[in-house]
Amino acid sequence: MDAENVEEKEKEEEILNKQSPEELQAEAEKLKNAANEFFKNADYVKAIELYSQAIEKWPRLAAYYGNRSFAYIKTEMFGLALTDATMALQLDRSYIKAYYRRASANMALGKFKLALKDFEAVVKVKPSDKDARAKFNECGKIVKRIAFEKAIAVEEKPVSETIDLESLTIEGDYSGPVLEDGKVTLKFVQDLLDTFRDQKKLHSRFAFQILLQIKDLFKNQPSLVDIDVPKGQKFTICGDIHGQYYDLLNIFKLNGLPSVDNPYLFNGDFVDRGSFSVECIFVLFSFKLLYPDSFYMARGNHESATMNQMYGFEGEVKSKYSSKMADLFTEIFNLLPLCHCINNKILLMHGGLFRDENVTLDDLRKVDRNRQPPESGAMCELLWSDPQMMCGTSDSKRGVGTMFGPDVTKKFLQKNKLDYIVRSHEVKQDGYEVIHDGKCITVFSAPNYCDQMGNKGAFINITGDDLTPKFTSFEAVPHPNVKPMAYANPLFGLF
């Protein structure tokens, strides 16, 4: 038994010595019931806190770990969810929900073979469970499809080279936005904003033209983009948007439309979860084409094929356009820059810092990003990492990336002569958070995330001569009656 387990055993015995088992179980059950109420009201953070207290009181009941695992899944802490589900099964191999929880977490991490094993375990125990059988079959299809795609993988033409724009005829009754001489103009973008607001569609010919042009633009950018903000000029930093188009419009209403004099950076996770991701991404791409040197976009962990298959973007693109367009988005997302540096003083990335304390900005410039995100290394950490309050690094609560402490942030900034970092990736109640002695800032711009978290969104303003961040928080605005995850594979209703 290692030192950590010994310490946990001693703590458990100390608790048991103070109260009778009956008293401890009764208190734990009260805490669990209270946690369930917070869970029902989508206050998952409070639910996790109370489930944890229940576990401290009575750490021998599988259901407590299973419940907390589900709350971790809801907050996208898949690594912790896996740990809890596994612990629940160690306590009770017959606790079926734990197999579901572990399968859910593994699927969220793209580990479909591991998920399939757990679904199979459920089916064996409950062969008449239709829901379990459906999930087992669907997961099996995904595993077989991935294996088939690997088996037939050959050097094929990129999707972008197979698109015939001339074959995409514009119907006579089309009244939506039109590119002028094939180019994005301010009028086009303004018309596009209104068209999408009214739940109308951009013609596929213009959609494909935008995607082909943006691919060429991103292809020629480095993995780390340097940004110069002149003295006196305002610059706006936004975090996750996650397909919440009407909240994106509200940002532009509050802070002004992007322009040469009103530059923006959107720090990843433009799509998935929210069901207006197509609208968000075409507006953002259009602004990038219109103002290539005043509008910036960084890749997030959701700009990847696995995430898009699970959380709705692929299904939304296929529903509103075609499979070919979904494949083209994957090609484009591989080319998005991974991070940005403002005035050589602020580094911005979607996720966070690194387990390797020797990483430099030059290392980031050399990252080969034209691929799906790996499971480790600098590219993975730029997209997936999260800060922690304790010093050092630790395994990620998400199961991917690294947790990094204030000392890691301080050393990185000193080594690279930076003032602070800005990252996104995490829901924050006010839309932002400042930690690590003011050196690590999180900004998240999707208010009432997934229509249930109750958080505010936020954006950051700085100026070229005053890099002190100024925060604006905002509430969610109404949107059409389309639920989040409306286009996700039904299998992912687990999340």
From TrEMBL:
Entry EC no(s): 3.1.3.16
Intervals holding TPR repeats: 28-61, 96-129
* Cross-referenced Pfam families: Metallophos, PPP5
Look up the record and name the cofactor or cofactors this protein needs.
Answer: Mn(2+)
Q: Name one GO molecular function term.
A: protein serine/threonine phosphatase activity
Domain Serine/threonine specific protein phosphatases, first and last residues per copy: 202-478
Protein's name in the database: protein-serine/threonine phosphatase
Q: Which organism is it from?
A: Mytilus edulis (Blue mussel)
Lineage runs: Eukaryota, Metazoa, Spiralia, Lophotrochozoa, Mollusca
